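Example (one chain per record):
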Amino acid sequence: MGDLTNSDYYSKNQRNDVSSNHEGGFGVSVMELRELMELRGSEAVVKIQEEYGDMDGLCQRLKTSPTEGLTGDATDLDKRKEVYGENLIPPKKPKTFLQLVWEALQDVTLIILEVAALISLGLSFYQPPGGDSGESCGTAAAGAEDEGEAEAGWIEGAAILLSVVCVVLVTAFNDWSKEKQFRGLQSRIEQEQKFQVVRGAQVIQLPVADIVVGDIAQIKYGDLLPTDGVLIQGNDLKIDESSLTGESDHVKKAADRDPMLLSGTHVMEGSGRMLVTAVGVNSQTGIIFTLLGAGEIHIQNTKKVQSKNLNDLKQDGAAAMEMQPLKSAEGGEMEEKEEKKKANVSKKEKSVLQGKLTKLAVQIGKAGLVMSAITVIILVLYFAVDNFVLQKRPWLTECTPIYVQYFVKFFIIGVTVLVVAVPEGLPLAVTISLAYSVKKMMKDNNLVRHLDACETMGNATAICSDKTGTLTTNRMTAVACYVGDVHYKEIPDPGLLSVKSLDILVNAISLNSAYTTKILPATKEGGLPMQVGNKTECGLLGLVLDLKRDYQPVRNQIPEEKLYKVYTFNSVRKSMSTVIKLPDGSFRMYSKGASEIVLKKCTKILNQEGEPRVFRPRDKDEMVKKVIEPMACDGLRTICVAYRDFPGDPEPLWDNENDILNELTAVCVVGIEDPVRPEVPSAIVRCQRAGITVRMVTGDNINTARAIAIKCGIIHPGEDFLCIDGKEFNRRIRNEKGEVEQERMDKVWPKLRVLARSSPTDKHTLVKGIIDSCLTDQRQVVAVTGDGTNDGPALKKADVGFAMGIAGTDVAKEASDIILTDDNFSSIVKAVMWGRNVYDSISKFLQFQLTVNVVAVIVAFTGACITQDSPLKAVQMLWVNLIMDTFASLALATEPPTEALLMRKPYGRNKPLISSTMTKNILGHGIYQLVIIFSLLFVGEQIFDIDSGRHAPLHSPPSEHYTIIFNTFVLMQLFNEINARKIHGERNVFDGIFRNPIFCSIVFGTFAIQIVIVQFGGKPFSCTPLDLEKWGWCTFLGLGELVWGQVIATIPNSKLRFLRGAGQLTKKNEMPGDEDMNEDNEEIDHAERELRRGQVLWFRGLNRIQTQIDVVNTFKSGSSYQGQLRRQSSTTSQNQDIRVVNAFRSSLYEGLEKPDSRPSIHNFMTHPEFRIEDTTPHIPLIDDTDLEEDPTGSQPQSPNKNNNAVDSGINLTIDTTSKSAASSGPASPLHSLETSL
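Predicted structure:
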């Protein structure tokens, strides 16, 4: 960042110039502070010494105290905000409603309709010259129209335009409300971010936006820094600055070496205090944001995200990525997109449902396009043949406009078929359903950060949960201890302990814990004391209070800045140590940590008198057996407290950790209890009933973990399960070289229920192993909970990451998809319920939508071909479209979830979207509706004794006949909407209908509007009023849907064999890459073709060798089994060939970015919260149906998921001599590949 740009920006954006700042009474200006913050390392230290003397000098100029902070006086705070700015970045303006309207107008089908309507309008005003020419234009002008009729020709065009306006406004309003909700969600996340600040010598929690320059902030492990600042005092502080610098190594910070702390960076280790020097737009991250136009980098919420932008952004967006805590409404979205970009690599295909729906929408869209094209062609041909061939009429120039008018009419019919066929309601239904769920999940303590997480959660098959705080209450209390060779089952009376031991113990606990950890008196009468800070440390401080001592005087005697050196707790050390300088110049180090780890480093232990005695290895073993294991088996967490004295001269080498943290003297072992949350056992039972395996992953001792797991109901005595610790886990899953092997992993994870003493890497390895496993036919969908900074990788890797809202660090929240605001496991079960509900809501909508689609398209198509006019007019079709898209998605997507959702197993990733029951319903209701409509169309006039509406001339008045058809059609849809509420073949479709007021109001509302349209719609809607008797018949035919629904429910699925195949419709197309690859063939250049040819030849050669080996094997075995196989395989191989080739291609070209070539209707997929990463084929490459027939041809899935085809080739070369399934079965896909190529 050049100085020039900064000063330019500064002169433009800063109201107060330097002099006025000094007048403001502060001894340093914004500009000076900004220049200071641009320095790094020793330069900064030198600058502070030269300009301000030292840190105290800088604090004086900013009128603050390094120990007591600001006074917190309101006028002082306002003045600081005025001079130095507030800690927020102004959000980018949201899109206006008009912009959203303009975007909705870009829809291809709507544009076609608009054009057609305009042409129709223009032509309706055209009068052919010469009064009689009407006769000579033949059929075109047939049916003597009165003047009024001819003049009413414009109404149809106008009505179409009006309905287009309606559709556009509805779409724009939906987008607008979605964006509004999203911003609300974002600000909710931001308000929740608080930071610890010292004001008036008290540590308080402040919302990030209220921090001002001059504040003294307390920083600790896991924080995301909200402002720039200078370190005053730090303990073992390491910062991850990758969000600003791109360097992944953690940077060590110290007040005398590199004191500069920047906003948007993460504290990975240690703790400290910093002086806030820059906030909001003046902080380093704020400057970057403003240079980028305060968010030109935000890719708009509803806009297409082109892959090109993403790449451009990768560079300049990297820095602005972590800006979310700076209270900017867009910052969060920004970070979300960044998150998505980072996730592009690590996340799986973003969302199962989204992927399936896009595929389906594209398929239906294509089918609709074909149907509409055929309709138009047939109509035009029929008209031309009838007029110019059969009746041999000449083409008269003056008649041309009339003919064109006919063609336009045909064109409009074609377009309406397309409009009805394309399910643009799908994206709407998904959005509404997700947005509704997210809103309701807020009440269930789930704050959803990424919309699709809520739907993925419904498919979850495994939950890896932390123990502390999620399954337990996270309220630690010391209940047992071992001091001076005595094991006390309860906290002893202080009189029983030697004074020496007691003093050392109190000092060790009081000094060797974060000074921010405190126990405050209870807020309510008779309540429990409040625990602030690290809960384990609170348990130990509670022990000090139980021993009738106080920790505060000890801390006052040695304040935090007097601590000589602090080794903070991290997941590698599993201990924390603090060094203090004693009055005689020597040093004492206090240590505490996991008991088995600290005891290993002890060589002495205090006896009953408080004197150190030798502590031999065999004493350690005895201690573990007699003290630690019994405590752990009662579910207690055991912590060992120890100390060590060092001489003052020569001073030890503090950086040589291994020597320092050794030869300790053990003081005591404390057993801390963390009771199980009362609601957890029942929640776990519900999970297990719903087919979800719960695994506990904890850093605790294995015995403690097992005891808690039994209390929670994760494991039941007598079951076949694994409880292992991190060491054993790694021994089982890694080979001699120390690499994780998927095969070994597959032997461990299915039975694993408790993983104890696990490191964050173990957690990540476990999650990755379960996700990548191919043991089950469905890929496992894994949810993970985490609270620590080190849980970040596992949270990111999981399909759904849950971060703890209370105990969680900012880093964990950033990596997560859902934040549990009450840190409670039972909220996860609620999330599962909502997720399944989303899936079911979409299925309900699909079932309804596809029935309407099938019927409307067939009616329009056959009607047009037989009667040269669609029985459903353009405007009517648009109304039907509105009912079935917007209204139905609202009605069906807002069904509340029920407990019954947790009674079934998860659907899994590869389950077709349309189940066989749904297919049965769609076909069944479709048949009923078609029979009714066609009966009315062809014999309706005789039944009701009215004039036939068929073969009506252009611009003729609407007929009663066609009005009855339209009315019956709409009423059948209305009653079918009630049927669509159940998709698993339930009988009672009215069950719980009044629990959903939205549904009821929409059904009654649509009915009311339908009455208005029919009775008063007139020419625009091509309707003529009906009398009561006809209304009665229409309603009766509609009600028939409900009766027919019961008939369909009676037919068992097993009777309908063909449905099995129907359900698979989406399965084959779900191979991401199949379709795309075919579309993209043109883009592959010659070099790539050559490359491909090379590979084919290589395969061919390989196969030759393989076939020869097979022949030899067959001769050896001499059995006819292989021959039999070969006959079988030839049928399966044909299917396999194409798939393997496609898979092979997609693995080759996986890396190529493809330009977005979807028509606009399907753009919903590229909304930022809806990015699907479907570049990798995650569905097994060979359909499981084929594998059943072919016992030896199955491929062992390779751990390298994306390149199955390539891998299997490699398999063949390695295994040529062995008789592995992959190489010996000639049915292996590569064998058949040769013949196909």
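Caption: The two ends are 56 Å apart (CA to CA).
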